[in-house]
Design goal:
heterodimer, A: 398 residues, mainly beta, Porin, 16-stranded antiparallel beta barrel, 2 helices, B: 178 residues, alpha/beta, D-Maltodextrin-Binding Protein, domain 2, five-stranded mixed beta sheet, two-stranded parallel ribbon, 7 strands, 41% helix, globular
Amino acid sequence: MAVTGRIALAIALLVVVLPATARAQAADDHQLIQDLLVRIQALENEVKALKDAQGQPAAPQPAAAATAEPGMPGGAGPTLQIRGFADVDYRRTDAPSNNSFALGQLDLFLNSTLSDNTSVVGELVTEANDENAFGIDLERLLVQYKPSDYFNVGFGRYHTAIGYYNTAYHHGTWFQTATERPFLFAFEDEGGPLPVHGVGLTVNGRIPSGGLGLRYVAEVANGRTSRSRLAEPVQNVIDENNGKAFNVALLAQPDKLLGFQAGVSFYRDRLEPAELARIRQTILSGHVVYHGHGFELMNEAVAVRHVPAGGSAVTTPAFYSQIAQQFAKKASPYFRYQYFNAPERDPIFGDIGLRKGPSLGLRYDFEPYAALKLQYDRTVRSHTDPVNGFATQLAFTF
Amino acid sequence: MKCVAALGSSVALAAMLALAGGLPVAAQRGGQEAIAIVVNRANPTDDLSIDELRKAFLGGRQRWPNGRKITVVMRPPGDMDRDLVLRLVCRMSEAEFQKYTLQAAFTGESPAGPRVLDTPLGVRRFVFNVPGAIGYVRLSEVDDTVKVIHIDGRAPSDPGYRLTAAAGPTGTGLFTRE
């Protein structure tokens, strides 16, 4: 009877105490699960490490291996890395042209580390022209020597550091939110107004500035072809004059404002169009951009000033603003407004005249490395009716 | 007297049951251990600010003060410690980090991305062998083949050390393109 009584009492106590204990633990359940997951991961790691250790010497490699260079395993020489970027498109406008499916660019990005300080980047781009014929262009070939954070030098064909868009985004359309580059930064062979490629020497690096994160860029290049509009616009092999174009830029990327960048640049060249007087070209640019929390805000303004010998200066103002916000880590509606207004008397851009208008679009990242973009554009131009366009682009990297 | 004994044994039993549920909680909380930032033992750097560490991991800073090239070694995507480092140091999600490193290579700013090794042993070996390497392992996984550096003046065992699972806010979703 006494034993039975004890058991009954114990059960009664348990009935009272256990629920209370359970309630007390309830608040910790979620934490407990998280903690257990951490612990499981740790144990898995330890098991993996032990398995690895069984198949390999327990001690690290001796000091003789301490000078091994990453990226050059076994002394087999540099390794070439290739990554592809491509897009396929559909475009329709109310201008007198046919709606078309279109193959965009196939961009093979080449990258190799030659040594601790030296690397090479290159880009081979295949795309079709207006006559549906494919061509291959070497869009970039740059040997870079980086002995320190404060002084890096590159030699070859590079993306001119005018503004932000031109260096942040180039042939890989997957990187950029919109389907097309702003007209201001359109490629030279597509009628773009700026020298977005340069062949020459580029130097860049950090400027000791604490948390302000200042960087500099200085470039000397052949400049853009000006003698004939039919010629290749980038002077890859032969400069049409002995004068060189130069560009300097100053950028700020503050430590405390992650994703923020502001910068200015100054570009100077001498143009020698056929049947025209020599022209001094100056390009001033400024930008303020921010990328963070899925939010994107880009603002860039450029002034292109042409001063013909014996003539007066003509300035073409241009800018674009773009804003985007990502939702659910996949969908990014965006809006861009761009403006470019070349006076008719401008000796280089006069035939472009005014070009302005909004773009509204949606980018949907349906896969980590593939995005579908839908974009509507309305473009107002001098002396012609506004053009409404719709574009669909499937951009991806592989 | 028998009732008192019965009560005592029952309370002891209840206490044991309660403790059986409570002990693992306390142990696992202690198990939220710090992530130690490790470098080669020959590296003279003893301390980095969290901003400097972020720059090193994102390629904004590519040289140690002694001129050695910084080579970042990380665990593979999906690893919890990697997620923690991305969240607390880089302030990015995995997808954002992948895109960032891809774009840094594309722009030529940081041609070689981080090395990826599967195990803490692999990370320690790499850091041991490469003078400019920097990586991370859990504090319990540190051995004397690597050197642990302070972050913002704090060692991993110090109160207020920033690289623990319990530290800091959740990921900010930040994605920077420089």
